[in-house]
């Protein structure tokens, strides 16, 4: 990161290191290819065209959760046959976008949704390919807001609904079941939940076989976590370990394709949020470093108490101090970190918030009539 260039820029801004992105993508690809696994990039993590382009060029598919994400993926050039469309509440209009483009599969979350897709496909005289998103009831042991694979969550079809579903499916003439889909949560750093997922998927996969239902693909979702604590020491997640777990514990039938939907692990560490210190304000117990970036630019700390490494890029002091690093928004939760150790910090210093390439810019808002963020890419 060239400091002189950075100092010329209007803050706050998102900064993406495209070289690191490419390195990460290559590593994921090489390790997935060992087992012939297919990766769909989960667009929800970051939808910038400059980020999507290399992902598409390396041959990844796309995992979308809205009609607009499907359209964005198509615009960038992802092949329709590589686009999965997930989401618990797809509107008719969004389903029609998927149907018109003959996508790889709709990942379906309820009987009601499957019936609507069937109706809409019938009106277009098409056969829609669907995967059933099954709730494996596996605990991802991550933050409760990003845990998705438990029966208490709104996601997926629960095991007690399966008999009913397979009774109904043959009556729906405009859909064909091609796959089973799972996703247990996000920012998962232990491999145990993934191992448990494999065990559950093996059981469900066998159950479908016993019912004489052919399943062409298994989609294991995303969820691989990154090292938010030491992003510079570990910029690339351990894809070798991750895919190795599936290779060891998943028991697909010989003809079955294996798919993943990775978001965060591919893009988080290539992005950072750069901000300037507006004021240092003395509090009762701590000093506040008030930045010109706030929860409107990066909401993860406010809603998940997420940790992001924070660094003062420009201080030349040899002293370190503790600061509560906060934004300018009128909410107490607008805080990027409490008691953050930084080099002695003053007004005008540039602050880097690390690992914001996933679920950073895409989750920004206009609250307080904030302006859109400029974006800078380094090739
Ligand atoms: N597939 C499905 C069905 C998903 O729901 C998600 C993420 C992914 C794949 C990609 O998961 P990843 O590889 O990125 O973990 N805003 C939160 C994360 C929400 C994740 C939602 N689903 C955060 O900032 O931590």
From TrEMBL:
It comes from the Bacteria. Its EC number is 4.1.1.20. It catalyses: meso-2,6-diaminopimelate + H(+) = L-lysine + CO2. Residues 31-268 form the Orn/DAP/Arg decarboxylase 2 N-terminal domain. The modification N6-(pyridoxal phosphate)lysine is found at residue 44. Pathway: Amino-acid biosynthesis; L-lysine biosynthesis via DAP pathway; L-lysine from DL-2,6-diaminopimelate: step 1/1. Pfam families: Orn_Arg_deC_N, Orn_DAP_Arg_deC. GO terms for molecular function: diaminopimelate decarboxylase activity. Its cofactor is pyridoxal 5'-phosphate. One of its GO terms (biological process) is lysine biosynthetic process via diaminopimelate. Residues 13-357 form the Orn/DAP/Arg decarboxylase 2 C-terminal domain. NCBIfam families: lysA. Belongs to the Orn/Lys/Arg decarboxylase class-II family. This is Diaminopimelate decarboxylase. It comes from Brumimicrobium aurantiacum. The gene is lysA.
